[in-house]
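Blinded run. Sample ID left blank on purpose so nobody reads anything into the name before looking at the predicted structure. Input follows.
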Amino acid sequence: MGDRDRLARQFEQENLPRVVMQALRLSEVDADCLELEVTESAVMQDPERTAATLRKLKQIGVRLSLDDFGTGYSSLNYLKRFPIDTLKIDQSFVRDITTDPDDAAIAVAVISLAHSLKRHVVAEGVETEAQLRYLRRHGCDEMQGYYFSRPLPADEFAALLREGRTLSLGDAAAEAAVKTLLLVDDEPIVIEILRRQLQDAGYRLLTAASAAEGLELLALNDVQVIVSDQCMPEMSGTEFFGRVREMYPDTVRIILTGDDDPKAAGDAVNRGGIHKFLTKPWDNAALREHIREAFTHYGV
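Blinded prediction complete.
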């Protein structure tokens, strides 16, 4: 029998709250120090009985979290009735959160829903700094995952707590105040030319050799303006900006291309929400002015 099956069976037992009380008494642990985690699929097998059991557990004083949220069949009506303290975003939505607009939208929606219902929200399966920063930017309260630590034996976990280990996240407000420009192009020579032309303009310059690398940098940094090449392998500038438009709608997006096809320009504007569509070779003074205007348009 799997863990989820056992959990569902436990919720069918009417004496579960009594068992929890006995365990707390025997272990001499305060009830508010215990958090019980239930899966969405388990609680929905018999919602009425589950709601009654959860209310009894809350009367004891323990905290309750709903695991794997978004993967089962719970309705918002039942979610409102369950006395849950914490919603946990399933790792399947966190895994590609920095590159997949759909996963990002689901995670942001869960965070907003949880906070609207006065619930705490935790992201599961966080494995990279980019994932952590994206979630933090959108107000996620806590995370769990390999980025902080892999599962540990009890003695090693105790040592970790004694060390007081933390993650350094920097000052988000200070980062947002810096004019940050992201340059994306698969040709190193183009990136170098752009960097030299703009290095004295007072911007914090970030460079990426691909759209995928650009998405990673966007998750890690507060970027206001992006200049991207159109013709890149694996993902075009239009496709890249299409994702950026969904995930970072406030950014100002400028595309550089060697193709002056009006249809391509129209597609870029419609799909990527392009602020400017510029052709190569570009006029240096005009490019600098367009970028200056972009930051003004953003409001920094």
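Unblinding after everyone has recorded impressions. The chain has two domains: 3-163, 172-298.
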